[in-house]
Amino acid sequence: MKMTITSIRLRSPFKFFPLSLYALHILRQLKSTNYVEFKKTGLWTMHYTMTLWNSEEDLKAFAASGAHLEAMQKGANIATEIRTLTIDAEQLPNWKTAKKMLAEQGKAVFF
Q1: CA–CA separation, 77 vs 90, rounded Å?
Q2: Which string of DSSP letters, residue by residue, matches 6-18?
């Protein structure tokens, strides 16, 4: 299985509102896929997600289509940094472990 951990650092607390709208559409899209497990957390300008997938093909199909693709294309409007890590995993870790893994191994895009 594949696990993806993502963080997004918002440009300002006010960017939470457009983030929430994107997230609503992305969650609707996610529910129509073959994901195994999903978690989210966040506060102020830092927000995180973790998703566990049966296969890399399912993950890539989700990431490259629909609401997720549209939100990624608009990421620079709301974020200063988006960081991701995709690895093999059988289950999602706790948030402390996930955040450490993301900080140490994640790939960042800065806007």
Answers
A1: 34
A2: EEEEESSGGGHHH
Query: Which residue numbers in the chain have pLDDT < 70?
Result: none
Distance, CA of 97 to CA of 15 (rounded, Å): 27
pTM of the predicted structure, to 2 decimals: 0.95
pLDDT for res 17: 96
**What's the pLDDT score for residue 3?**
98
The total number of structural domains that make up the chain: 1
pLDDT of residue 45: 98
The whole domain housing 19 covers 2-110
* Tokens matching residue 4: 């993806």
What's the number of CA atoms in the CB half-sphere (13 Å) around residue 44?
0
Kindly report the CATH number assigned to the domain that includes residue 32: 3.30.70.100
Q: Residue 82 corresponds to which amino acid?
A: I
Cα gap 51→59, rounded to integer Å: 9
- DSSP H helices, 1-111, are 16-31, 56-63, 66-73, 75-78, 95-105
DSSP state of 37: E
